[in-house]
Design brief:
The protein is built from 13 helices and eleven strands. It is α/β, with parallel strands linked by helices.
C-alpha cells in the first residue's frame, strides 16, 4: 500500500506543479494590448542577424527588421559564404529600405565549432552601438521589438532573450513543433526565470558590449557547443541574470516534416544535457507520461479502472495547457490536445537519447559534444 499511495502522491504533486507552471506562463506571456513606445532616452541598438539559406517566410521575417518603431538602430546581416542563396534577397531588402541603416557582411571567422557563432563574430565587431541584439533569421519582429527587449532589462541583468513562439503551422508536424515550442518549452523557461534560474535562448538575445567584453568578448562564447549556453554562463559568472521578454516573439513555421521536428528536438535535448546536465536531469518529469503510468499502477492494484484513471490524469494535464494556448492567443486547433499527448509520449524517448548520444547535424554541419572529437563542417 505504501507503494500505491506513493504513486498517487507522485501523480498528484506533478499534476499540481504542471498547473502552477501553466499559471506562471499565462501571466508572464500574455499578449500585449498595444505596442510599447520607444523610451525617451532611447540608446542606439545594433541588430545582428546571422543568415544561412532560405527559411520559410524568410522575406517576411528579414523584412521585419526594417519596420521597427525605434529611433536609433542599425541592421547588420551576416552570411558565411558568398554563394548563399539568401544573399540576393537581403540585397533586395536593403535596396528597398534606404531609410534604415543596414549592411550585409560576408565571411566567416572560425572561432568555435559553432557555425552560427562563427557567422556572428564579424557582425558583433562591426556593430556601431554598445547595445547589441543577436536575432535569428526566422524571428518575426513586431514594431516594438527593441522596446520589449529593453523593457525587461533591470539593474542586475546581463542578457534579455525571447524564446520562439511557433505560429502559422501548415502541417500536423508543424503543429507538433508548436506544442514543443509554445506551451512546453516557453512555459518551463518562464518557470526557470521565476525561480532565479533564467537561461538564454539564441533566437533573440539583447546584451551590452561591456558585459560580454568583461567575460572575454564574443569569442569567449566558443567555450560551449552553443552560444546561448555560453552566454548564460558568462553573465551568471558576473553575478548577473538572464531575463525574458513579457511575451515571446513569433517564429512562423509553415510546413514541417516529422523528421525535421524529431531531429530538432533531439539536437536541443542533447545540447541541454551537455551544457546544463543538472538542470536537464529533472526534465523527465515535465510531461504527462509518468503521471499517467503512476495512475495506471495505482488504479490496477486498487481495483479501479486503469483506462479511466489514465484518461482522468491525461485530461488534468491537457486541459490547462489548452487553456494556456487559448488565453495567450497562441496557435490552437482541434488537433492540439492530441498533439500535446503525442509530444508527451515522445519526451521520455528524447530524454533517454540525450544521455547516450553525443552527435547531431546542424545546418549541414556534423557536430560532436565529445571534447576529443572535432566537428566537421560541410561545404
Amino acid at each position: 500500500m505504501t507503494t500505491i499511495y506513493g504513486a498517487i502522491l507522485f501523480c498528484v504533486v506533478l499534476t499540481a506543479l504542471n498547473c502552477v507552471s501553466i499559471g506562471i506562463a499565462m501571466v508572464r506571456a500574455r499578449p500585449r494590448s498595444r505596442p510599447l513606445p520607444a523610451p525617451d532616452q532611447a540608446p542606439g541598438v545594433s541588430l545582428v542577424r546571422p543568415l544561412c539559406g532560405l527559411d520559410n517566410f524568410c522575406e517576411e521575417t528579414l523584412g521585419s527588421s526594417f519596420s521597427l518603431d525605434y529611433p536609433a538602430y542599425e541592421v547588420i546581416f551576416c552570411v558565411a559564404r558568398a554563394y548563399d542563396p539568401v544573399i540576393p534577397l537581403v540585397e533586395r531588402l536593403i535596396a528597398r529600405n534606404p531609410h534604415a541603416p543596414s549592411r550585409l557582411i560576408i565571411g566567416d571567422e572560425k572561432v568555435s565549432l559553432n557555425p552560427k557563432l562563427n557567422n556572428c563574430v564579424k557582425g558583433w565587431d562591426a556593430a556601431s552601438y554598445d547595445w547589441i541584439i543577436l536575432a535569428d533569421a526566422n524571428v518575426l519582429m513586431p514594431k516594438d521589438y527593441i522596446q520589449r527587449l529593453l523593457a525587461s532589462w533591470k539593474d542586475d541583468t546581463g542578457l534579455v532573450c525571447s524564446m520562439p513562439l511557433g505560429s502559422r503551422p501548415q502541417t500536423l508536424w508543424a503543429e507538433l513543433e508548436c506544442a514543443f515550442l509554445n506551451t512546453y518549452e516557453a512555459r518551463w523557461q518562464y518557470c526557470a526565470e521565476a525561480v532565479g534560474l533564467g537561461f538564454a535562448q539564441g533566437k533573440s538575445m539583447l546584451t551590452r558590449r561591456d558585459i560580454i567584453e568583461a567575460g572575454g568578448g564574443i569569442r569567449a562564447l566558443a567555450s560551449e557547443i552553443i552560444e546561448d549556453a555560453a552566454s548564460t554562463k558568462l553573465v551568471r559568472s558576473q553575478g548577473r541574470a538572464v531575463n525574458l521578454v513579457d511575451s515571446p516573439f513569433e517564429q512562423p513555421l509553415g510546413s514541417r516534416s516529422a523528421r525535421e521536428v524529431w531531429l530538432r528536438q533531439l539536437r536541443w535535448a542533447r545540447t541541454r544535457r551537455k551544457t546544463f546536465p543538472l538542470a536537464f536531469a529533472p526534465e523527465i518529469l515535465a510531461g504527462a507520461a509518468f503521471p499517467c503510468l503512476a495512475a495506471a499502477y495505482a488504479a490496477y492494484f486498487l481495483g479501479w479502472s486503469v483506462t479511466g484513471a489514465v484518461f482522468a490524469v491525461a485530461i488534468a494535464w491537457v486541459a490547462p495547457e489548452c487553456l494556456l494556448a487559448v488565453a495567450n492567443k497562441w496557435h490552437f486547433s482541434w488537433r492540439m490536445p492530441f498533439v500535446f499527448l503525442l509530444r508527451d509520449l515522445m519526451l521520455p524517448i528524447i530524454y533517454i537519447d540525450a544521455w547516450f548520444v553525443d552527435h547531431f547535424t546542424w545546418r549541414g554541419n556534423e557536430m560532436s559534444m565529445r571534447e576529443d572529437e572535432p566537428s566537421v563542417e560541410q561545404g
